[in-house]
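Structure tokens please, single chain.
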Amino acid sequence: MNVPLSENHTAIEEKHTNDEIILCEKLTKLYRDGNILAVDQLDMTVHRGEIFGLLGPNGAGKTTTVGMLTTLVVPTGGKAIVAGIDVVAQPALVKQVIGVVSQTNNLDRALTVWENLYYHGRFFGMSARESREAADRLLVEFRLTERAKAEVMAISGGMAKRLQVARALLHNPSVLFLDEPTAGLDPQSRLALWEILRKLHTEGQTILLTTHYMEEADAICDRLAIMDHGRILAANTPKGLKESVGADSIVTVSAIGNLDALAKLLQEKVEGITRSQQVDNTIQLHIKGTTGVVPKVVSTAEQGGFNITDLSVAEPTLETVFINLTGKELRD
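Here you go.
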């Protein structure tokens, strides 16, 4: 789908308010060489001061969306406003008011840890004194002081990611973009970065991040959008998305035999099951309100001639929401 870029930016700019720091309207990216529609008429609003997440599997269009909002990718169609600036009409101005942390380590290997910060500030027009003071301050805040003179290739992956975030913040951006910020990090480094992002949030920093980790989206995002095949399927708070499932618990059943027949039997015979679906050679049962349903599931299956090999009970998760929307697990 190709949505023409309008020459008139007035309509969407009039919708922009002080609370809306990112506003997308039918934002689209079609890669013509492969005829791939990476982002398909995306509508999205991010409020000032919130952590907003784009949650979805690899290939969902998350990175392309961030690329368009940060001027690295030119949209095929639609509109996007970041901090009151049209990303297509004034990309140079947008670059001045955003900070970007990419998936890959793009630190300057020819510079030390401190120099990566200092020269970033100078590049953004800060005076030598301002850049030096900001670099010193961020080294302390991001616990990198002891490694200030180290080459960036000599620091750990977790430190390198912290340095990327510190560098992106040095010129005091209106919006901080992070693309899969914890991919490849060990659990300790991941938790440390979450702590940093929460602190930035309390200080009023607007953050947009992409992730395919459910736990990450649930733990740190004020709101998030579930994305797949270039489209936003649902957007809400993590709690609101999980409540939309309409179930108090999810029972996952593995069994020998015809799973479709078992699912139909259980939904007919067991009170409290509001929905059943087959996912990866298991049956997921959505249970609403009824206690003691698990023994009933087991006995009903056995009476029907089915042998249950495994059964688990959990609260609805963002994975559940994704399965409901797409029919597949998030890791697919």
